[in-house]
Design goal:
Length: about 280
């Protein structure tokens, strides 16, 4: 059962912030919800957004400007936090790309992280909570995200296509086994056996599937002025894997755009309409 922390009128609907006792994490976790008007007596499509490194459940709702379009389309938006809070793991706040704010949407198997850092299970748990407590249609659930959250969205959707009917991403860490961010996170949370990492790498998952998991396509937007593009993101690796597997992919490359929320807010309407069409 979730606890409503605050509620704010927004584009005719309500922006809410919640907390609940997460069984997956073993700690209280927060999440945010935008609920458009007209939900009374209906079941609406719901879209989960996974944020990137250092972000919280507030970041997307404050910065992306997505509520206006969600209100028009009648889509519920949900944004979880990016890691456990208050786990008190030694060193968890020592670096910005591992630990607090950097859960990487994996279930850690290595001590001391494995007790609380179970963000993969947390997202699936939150999906069930939202379907139980909000007017959300369990047959019309999509997922998208940014950077670390783009990795999370692609990975969760590819592993659970029966739970998520649509998927898109902004500047995702598309091949985390190949980049410094991913290798640091996977090594710390999952250990040194790289075969265990493949279950959390979107490029590896597409290659393993060998066919179209999402026949109606995947949408990715990538800014070409993104300072992390060449070293951390590897969209071309994901593109190659999709091509080999016959997975339809629209990878849009945008000159001049960087990695931040000015980029996301420019193209977020396209993503919401992409999902609404597939969740109709």
């Amino acid at each position: 059962m979730s606890e409503l922390l605050s509620e704010h009128a927004c584009f005719g609907g309500v922006q809410r912030f919640y907390r609940f006792d997460s069984a997956a994490i073993g700690l209280p976790m927060r999440f945010s919800v935008y609920l458009p008007s007209g939900a009374e007596g209906k079941r609406l499509p719901v879209l989960f957004y996974l944020a990137g490194l250092t972000c919280t459940e507030e970041t997307f709702m404050i910065k992306a400007g997505a509520q206006r379009v969600a209100a028009e389309l009648g889509v519920i938006l949900v944004a979880p936090d990016t890691s456990p809070r208050g786990a008190d793991v030694p060193g968890e706040a020592d670096s910005w790309d591992f630990g607090v704010g950097a859960g990487f949407y994996v279930d850690a198997t290595q001590e001391p992280w494995s007790r609380h850092y179970r963000m993969y299970s947390h997202i699936l748990e939150l999906r069930e909570l939202v379907l139980a407590e909000l007017p959300a249609d369990g047959a019309r659930v999509g997922i998208f995200g940014h950077s670390m959250g783009g990795h999370g969205a692609l990975m969760l959707a590819l592993r659970n296509p029966e739970l998520f009917r649509s998927v898109s991403a902004f500047a995702p860490i598309a091949a985390p086994m190949r980049c410094p961010w991913g290798r640091k996170a996977f090594g710390g949370y999952l250990g040194t056996d790289e075969s265990a990492w493949r279950a959390y790498d979107a490029t590896e998952l597409v290659a393993r599937a060998g066919q179209a998991v999402f026949p109606k396509g995947i949408l990715i937007d990538q800014g070409l002025a993104d300072k992390f593009l060449s070293e951390q993101l590897y969209p071309e690796a994901f593109e190659e894997a999709c091509s080999a597997a016959g997975q339809p992919l629209e990878l849009r490359r945008h000159p001049g755009y960087d990695h931040g929320y000015y980029f996301i807010s420019t193209f977020v309407e396209d993503h919401l309409r992409f999902h609404a069409e597939r969740l109709a």
